[in-house]
């Protein structure tokens, strides 16, 4: 993992030409920012999906990525560019734009000159601090699926990397719920409502949970002093929960 | 950064021990005036390879463990991912050093005793005990694996001949007792020397068993298992100053335990929202105040620290103090929140300050001032322009730890490319050192390293683009009273000491 950036070259002038032709509404000045912001959004959504592996996902990482996605969505909603990414323009975007996006790393002051100006057509005054824009939630929080549909339409124009991206988007499509927030619904499966039961139940390991379960608990319950057989104790809990429900 | 020549450079303090702590505005600790952040002051004591599972058997046969520890010829390729060190902690005297790894093992090193014949060996650490603390588990209800990786180890203060430590993985905390046995009883009446029962008919006399010396054996036994209290992943454990209780913190909750009671714990902090879809902030670290057994702090992914008082209420959801630095609007980007997420929080030994580590900086806060830190140190600010790439390869989520030295005058934290940084709070000097195999000659003096940011790269400098981001120093430890540090680099444990020592 020696050198890992400087792969994406800045091609601002070329992008300008292309995208002005593509006619992004309300984004005359620096469309490269919008496209790179879009690619950051895509990257973030991919990361959220890749969380679901064999080991439980890192909740802190998921929360931080989700917050980043929300920020981008809020800003895009404010710009009025949320539904604007034209498939053609997106299709022309080179693949390695997903990689190094230095512009996004620049501070707001540098970006000010690049953002769409007040006369961009929607009468929007640029915020000094775009990420902190407070927009009513109903308006700001769109489903990431809407951006996915737009990206999907240009699928055939992209390279091999797109293949794995497609699989992930399909998984997202198949979800019944589309919003970012509901990604945490997975974390908070019904099992988690049992955590209160569990912590309360820990105290009743030895006493069992009703006489009907004595057969189970007496057979496998570890003696209170034997502290190393925690795995048996946990299995015990699992059995008790299943039988209980 | 201009280094001020120290007037007290030639003070001889080798006979002095560092005091427990001293105020930074008072007289500086010896480290700060002499060698802590100066050139050519830190030397390698030993590099320890955590013994792999394969070699563990042979190690038991090999009595001279020093041979293995100092054998720099060990083939690196045998190291597996299970050997990656995930936590390092000195005990309260500094005599023992514990490491936990991804494979669920704990390895304890003991300091070599001072001897007249081999004066220079003092300061070396050798393997004292190795045991499997946690095993991989499978959660049947969620169909997910529970990693056996040791997230944290915390020592209990020593109260008798045995040593006690807490070790935790994502879900379960265990109390381990490590004790020495150098005598064994001989001369039982009912059993023979191999332990087999004797035929009672053959017993004609009674004798009293006697204790005879035997080869020193160090054994570790699990004394308590604190399980089933955490839905989310445990990130911190902290022993209270009352030595009767400790806390364990996961992403959303903090529980208070009594050492004697394993089937119950008190929930003292709960930030889980009623609707998980509204979750925007998690707990990242927590620690008890070193002297006030009712106070503790916890940090969050939004860069805030809360000080809580357990006397105020049973559930400490309302903080006593709230520490947050106002955001610098000129530095705002999409990554601002991520890099503000605090990865570690540590009280100073004095209990007057807390230190926090976020992605790019280390900050020192005065408990009496909540609105901003009193000191901010840049660890690797040259990464600020590379945040997007670091987000892409997930490095931006790396959780670096930070530590105080014994006198609270120097702080240390890790970085990439096996670099680690020390900041002297009094002289404002800082140094970047590297834990690498190339510098692995014993007693080799560490050369300060420098990262070149601008265009022209000097001979010894390394450019930002050449940094190896797979080599990260996340875990370090500082001896409680001496200038000895332990630095974990993947599966290697480096011990460095100040050469004046």
UniProtKB/TrEMBL annotation, chain A:
Keyword annotations: Cell cycle, Cell division
GO biological process, one term: cell division
Location of the SERTA domain: 33-80
Region ranges (Disordered): 1-23, 204-231
Keyword Cell division (UniProt): yes
Pfam families in the record: SERTA
Keyword Cell cycle belongs to the record: yes
Source superkingdom: Eukaryota
GO cellular component: nucleus
Protein name, as recorded: Cell division cycle-associated protein 4 isoform X1
From TrEMBL, chain B:
Protein keywords: Repeat, WD repeat
Coiled coil: none
GO cellular component, one term: protein phosphatase type 2A complex
A molecular function (GO) term: protein phosphatase regulator activity
Family annotation (InterPro entries): PP2A_PR55, PP2A_PR55_CS, WD40/YVTN_repeat-like_dom_sf, WD40_repeat_dom_sf, WD40_rpt
Protein family per UniProt: Belongs to the phosphatase 2A regulatory subunit B family.
Name used for this protein in its record: Serine/threonine-protein phosphatase 2A 55 kDa regulatory subunit B
